[in-house]
Amino acid sequence: MKKIIIGATGASGMPILAECLKQIRLEKEYESALIMSQSAVLTLEHETDYKKEEIEQLADEVFTPDQIGAGPASGSYRTHGMLIVPCSMKTAAGICSGYADNLILRAADVTIKEQRPLVLAARETPLSPIHLRNLAELSRMPGVRIIPPMMTFYQRPETIDDMVRHMAARLLEPFGIETEGYRRWKGI
């Protein structure tokens, strides 16, 4: 199985987290390990009708941020990479500076040192010079991709759910997951 660690932090974008977990669940070769911060849980309940337990049921494994000695804290824990969706600017700053004081940050640190894919759904607006500096620094690291959850219209979405599915597909693509209905740009 190809395991993807999914971190969720306190930025806006929880419907995208849910959709990513659902899409991974549909893939026979993949499984997910979820780590949600306390801020993510608060945001989840504010933005969606999901409860924490319902989101956790979409994952194959669940850890808490204070489990700093859990599997994802070690390079010997086999994964296919890590996705942080949404990724707050606090989390991006922690990853950028190597400040690994919880399991989400430590797992990201391990992902970088093992040169596995790390995808950050960086979520903030407007972006300050500090945010931009941290994201630029992270983007120069091998395997790190910054994929902000931005609206796109070339796929002609009819609903918000269409946009959420499209964004989830973009975030999962670096791990080799091709979601059904994902429409790539084919030119004009």
UniProtKB/TrEMBL annotation:
Family annotation (InterPro entries): Flavin_trans-like, Flavoprotein, UbiX-like
Keyword Coiled coil on entry: no
Keywords recorded for this protein, A-Z: Flavoprotein, FMN, Prenyltransferase, Transferase
GO MF terms held by the record: flavin prenyltransferase activity
E.C. designation(s): 2.5.1.129
Residues engaged in binding dimethylallyl phosphate: Y154, R170
Pfam families reported in the protein's UniProt record: Flavoprotein (PF02441)
Record field: catalytic activity: dimethylallyl phosphate + FMNH2 = prenylated FMNH2 + phosphate
SUPFAM superfamilies, per the entry: Homo-oligomeric flavin-containing Cys decarboxylases, HFCD
Domain Flavoprotein: residue ranges: 2-168
Enzyme class: transferase
Keyword Transport among UniProt keywords: no
Binding site for FMN: G10, A11, S12, S37, S88, M89, K90, T91, R123
HAMAP family found in the cross-reference section: ubiX_pad
Similarity annotation: Belongs to the UbiX/PAD1 family.
Physiological role: Flavin prenyltransferase that catalyzes the synthesis of the prenylated FMN cofactor (prenyl-FMN) for 4-hydroxy-3-polyprenylbenzoic acid decarboxylase UbiD. The prenyltransferase is metal-independent and links a dimethylallyl moiety from dimethylallyl monophosphate (DMAP) to the flavin N5 and C6 atoms of FMN.
Protein name according to UniProt: Flavin prenyltransferase UbiX
Organism of derivation: Anaerostipes butyraticus
Gene: ubiX
